[in-house]
Structures are given as structure tokens and as C-alpha cells.
Write a structure and sequence with these properties.
- The protein contains 13 helices and 6 strands.
- By secondary structure, it is an alpha/beta fold.
Length: 274
């Protein structure tokens, strides 16, 4: 059994700005239809167990730890208005969706990957997301990350080839180099090459000698906390909860709202497979 875990927030952004390249106006639910199309495409390709994590709100517990951490400020109203409809439409399509509030979508994906990988029924877990911090979830060939831009599939060897460190050291790597997307700067003067070299030499930041980081040690440890994904969200009891069993009765109304006749046809073709 393969388990597919999808970053719904990233997909919503991707489709929103992708549509904008071709449309003069933003379709009210255009990005939602795009994400549904992506998920149905996976099911058409043979996916049977699928889960989608979303940022129900952009803020999380990390905002209390670091004032510069990312927020929902700057998210365009036309995009923000599609967050809730995406979650509702996915649920109507029969897809398991986890709207995250105190945690982030990445924490949801990390927790789902952890839970799924513990099941003997699962052959592989594929995390469909681009965020660098999700590389820490990769385990050998069993839990892999699929880059949504390049299509590259990164196992543990692929993570090391890209970042210079093993997956479990990604939080240390990001703590040193920073993550502008999430809003923390890392340690001044330390780039990717230096960070990988320090981690290879000393291991996790907690084992660095005092002179390695000097006064930057405490900020680095805080940034590591920000970069470390939570894996303890109780998202499901058994992996069978992720099995796609077809759209619910509410899906027809959503297809009308989305004005997406092709989605209707695709969903109906897939129904016997559920």
C-alpha cells in the first residue's frame, strides 16, 4: 500500500497563481477546483490512500516563540477566501483533510507520515510538498518527499545530496541557515556549505562546542525548535482511515458551485473504484 500526503495550502497557492497567469480576473473558487483536480488525478493514477493537510489559519504556536515567524498578513483576499472552501470541498469529495490550527500543515504531514510509516501494511509514504523542513520526515526509501516543482522524488540519499546532511539533521541545518519562507534568519555568516560541514563534524547543535556558535548558540537552538516538525498530532487511528471511498452526497453541490463539469465526469468515472 502507498500512502499519499498532500500539502493542501501549497497546492492552493500554486493553482491560484497559476490561474492568474491565464485569467484576467481571479475565479472565486478557481484554485479550489485546481486542487481537487490534482487530487483526482492522483486517484486516477491508482492512489487509494490519500490525506491532505491545510493551514486552517496561517499562525501557529511558533508565532509565540519568534515574533518574526510567518503570519497570514499579505495573503491576498481572493486567495484567503478559498481556504475554508478548499477544506469543505475536499471533504465532500471523500478525501481525508486535516485543517491545522495550533499546528501547521507541515506538522500535519509530519504526523501523518509518522503514523502511516508505523503500519506494516504501508510499503511507502509519499509527501507531496516543497517545504524544506519536510525533508526531515524522509526515512530511507520508505518515506519520501516529492518536489512539486521538479517532480524529483527524494529518499534519504536524495536529501543528503541536496542539503549535505541526513534527514534527521534538517532542523539543525535550517536553524543555522535560516528559512526566509517561515520568517527566521538563521545564524549570520553561516551558509549551506558551512552548516553542513559543522553538522557533519559535531552532530546536532546541542553537541556543538561553545566556540562554534558563540553568542548565536541560544538563537540557533530557538530556530531549531521552530524548524522541528511535530509528529504527535492524533490524526487517525489506523491507516485504513485514509482510504478513498468515493465522493459524498454533498459533492454534487460543490461541483455546481465550482462550475467544473470535467471534475464531475472524472469523479463519476472514479466512483466504481472507491
Amino acid at each position: 500500500m502507498l500512502v499519499h500526503l498532500i500539502d493542501g495550502t501549497y497546492e492552493l497557492f500554486r493553482h491560484f497563481y497559476g490561474l492568474r497567469r491565464f485569467k484576467k480576473e481571479d475565479p472565486p473558487l478557481g484554485a479550489v477546483a485546481g486542487v481537487l483536480g490534482t487530487v483526482l488525478e492522483m486517484i486516477e493514477g491508482g492512489a487509494t490512500h490519500v490525506g491532505v493537510a491545510t493551514d486552517h489559519v496561517i499562525e501557529s504556536f511558533r508565532n509565540d516563540l519568534w515574533p518574526g515567524y510567518k503570519t497570514g498578513d499579505g495573503v491576498e483576499p481572493a486567495l484567503a477566501a478559498q481556504f475554508q472552501p478548499l477544506e469543505d470541498a475536499l471533504a465532500a469529495a471523500g478525501v481525508v483533510v486535516w485543517p491545522m490550527v495550533e499546528l501547521e500543515a507541515d506538522d500535519g504531514l509530519a504526523s501523518a507520515a509518522h503514523l502511516a510509516s508505523e503500519s506494516s501494511e504501508v510499503e511507502k509514504v509519499c509527501i507531496w510538498a516543497n517545504d524544506k523542513d519536510l525533508a526531515q520526515c524522509v526515512r530511507g526509501d520508505r518515506v519520501v518527499q516529492v518536489d512539486r516543482r521538479s517532480g524529483a522524488i527524494r529518499n534519504a540519499a536524495g536529501v543528503r545530496a541536496k542539503f549535505g546532511v541526513d534527514p534527521e539533521r534538517i532542523p539543525d541545518f535550517l536553524a543555522l541557515t535560516g528559512d526566509p519562507q517561515d520568517g527566521y534568519p538563521g545564524v549570520a555568516g553561516i551558509g549551506a556549505v558551512t552548516a553542513a560541514r559543522l553538522i557533519d563534524r559535531y552532530g546536532p547543535i546541542e553537541r556543538f562546542p561553545p566556540e562554534a556558535l558563540g553568542t548565536s548558540r541560544e538563537p540557533a537552538l530557538l530556530f531549531k525548535t521552530l524548524a522541528t516538525l511535530r509528529t504527535d498530532a492524533p490524526l487517525f487511528a489506523t491507516v485504513d482511515a485514509l482510504r478513498w471511498r468515493g465522493p459524498t452526497s454533498a459533492f454534487a453541490d460543490w461541483l455546481t458551485r465550482l462550475e467544473a463539469p470535467r471534475l464531475t465526469e472524472r469523479a463519476e468515472r472514479l466512483r466504481p473504484r472507491a
